[in-house]
């Protein structure tokens, strides 16, 4: 994924349901080990794919009682709730019951019945997440409600990993949490200091690229319809769901890549802006110039928004930039 013509040291582990890699400019097994252990701890707090975690303790008490969580998880849930309540937001941190019903990426093979979808849609209102700042508790008002951090966990964790690297005096690195990339400061590989980050071609199974980004000290996060999906009767069902229909969001985008300062906002906005589709997402970005985006459309056109924060080089001529 990362182009490196300089001396680099890569450390890899399978975590977060994906491949996590750290690329450092000097060998440092110790720090890499420390970071992998930390990721395991954070994953065990945030996951909803295991019976026990901080978030699962909130979910299992839905409709019954508030649950006290750690300060960091509380503030992450609070942020996610705020973004879920933004007018027109397609991001919904309370989407859990629908995610579990569809099981996309987890052995789901065909769409659930309309009745099942309608039942779950009654349990996904982010207003029904009650937060008590004083007690640091989270209460899901209806039995069967579930918070799902799948869209933001990797971004949240990537920012923490960045902070740990800096604390340990490591100022140049690439953190890659299965496609959530953080490029730390400048690359030593070229005079301009650009890190080169490959943009994967959707649905290619051999790491084919569309092109690559050049960034300095940025997070690069992609959300798309090709990461986790199934095909049933010629229709593709992917893993970003529309709260208003209960079905996967349907628009002209194959993927959106967000270039931002923090990976948490990259992850939040990759999901949210994917859902808005190109026109409305681009409108939003014109008013938020600190966020940049690369849109890959199903018709193989590429559009950029706010390209002052990065450069993009197209290498795959099946695509055109417009
Ligand atoms: P990836 O997991 O490939 O990085 P995303 O960041 O786009 O992809 O997150 C997708 C995940 O977010 C889904 O697997 C699911 O857990 C959760 N999710 C699905 N739909 C929504 C939604 N509308 N709002 C918030 N989270 C969602
Ligand atoms: Mg996301």
Walk me through what this model shows:
With 322 residues, this protein is α+β, with helices and mostly antiparallel strands. It is globular and about 60 Å long. It contains seven helices and 17 strands. It has helices at residues 29-46, 54-60, 71-84, 96-102, 114-121, 153-167, 263-287, and strands at 9-15, 18-24, 67-68, 129-132, 137-140, 173-177, 180-184, 195-200, 209-215, 218-224, 229-232, 235-238, 253-260, 292-297, 301-305, 311-314, 320-321. A nine-stranded mixed β-sheet has the order 1-2-6-7-10-13-14-15-17, with helices on one face. Magnesium ion (MG) is lined by residues 151-152, 223, 267, 270-271. Residues 151-152, 223, 267, 270-271 line the site of magnesium ion (MG).
Strand element count: 17
- Major sheet attributes: 9 strands, mixed
Ligand catalogue:
adenosine-5'-diphosphate, magnesium ion
For the residues shown, what is the average pLDDT? 95
β-sheet strand percentage: 25-35%
Assign a percent range to the helix content: 25-40%
List the helices and strands in order. Answer: EEHHEHHHEEHEEEEEEEEHEEEE
Radius of gyration: 20 Å
Task: Annotate the secondary structure layout.
Layout (H helix, E strand, L loop, with lengths): L8 E7 L2 E7 L4 H18 L7 H7 L6 E2 L2 H14 L11 H7 L11 H8 L7 E4 L4 E4 L12 H15 L5 E5 L2 E5 L10 E6 L8 E7 L2 E7 L4 E4 L2 E4 L14 E8 L2 H25 L4 E6 L3 E5 L5 E4 L5 E2 L1
Parallel strand pairs: 15-17
Antiparallel strand pairs: 1-2, 2-6, 3-5, 4-5, 6-7, 7-10, 8-9, 9-16, 10-13, 11-12, 13-14, 14-15
The structure holds adenosine-5'-diphosphate and magnesium ion (MG).
